[in-house]
Design brief:
The chain is α+β, with helices and mostly antiparallel strands. It has three helices and five strands; from the N terminus they run βααββαββ.
């Protein structure tokens, strides 16, 4: 695929899953991430759920970028293990977007927020992981998600 961000603080080789950019594959991506998180990292179940939701949002956004471009393609999800973190990237070749141009939403505590039915994926992602970054390239977008946590005791 070629559209991968580096994973600072990570030395181990990555694990990758490439799926067709179709909605029926979001569940497979969730299973991939949940399995790696539960088997390799010291993470509470709630944090695994947070990661699954954040990756689902990023994957859905990637798949929608292809739909808007009117073509079929793939989404590549890459997992890295680090000594104090896990890093997941979701990469597409759907044309990219400028994250700085995404409209800001009102705070969730105001009734005005109820008027927004779409466009909540990026705020959700940011709320669920410890760090996130969006890299726009001529080929597409890569979203990098970071959660700080150690390896499972039996894997250390």
């Amino acid at each position: 695929m070629g559209v991968l961000v580096d994973a600072p603080g990570v030395e181990a080789p990555p694990v990758q899953l490439t799926v067709p950019a179709r909605p029926e594959f979001v569940g497979l991506v969730r299973l991939f991430v949940a399995t790696l998180a539960a088997s390799r990292r010291e993470l509470a179940e709630e944090r695994v759920d947070d990661l699954k939701l954040a990756v689902s949002e990023a994957t859905t956004n990637a798949m929608e970028s292809y739909r808007s471009a009117g073509r079929d393609a793939v989404v590549t999800v890459t997992w890295w293990d680090g000594p104090d973190r896990l890093v997941v990237s979701v990469a597409d070749e759907g044309g990219g977007f400028d994250v700085d141009k995404v409209p800001k939403h009102p705070p969730v505590t105001t009734s005005e927020r109820l008027r927004f039915e779409r466009g909540l994926g990026i705020p959700i992602i940011r709320a669920l992981v410890d760090e996130c970054a969006f890299e726009r390239t001529p080929k597409g977008t890569t979203v990098r998600l970071v959660m700080f946590c150690g390896p499972r005791e039996d894997r250390a």
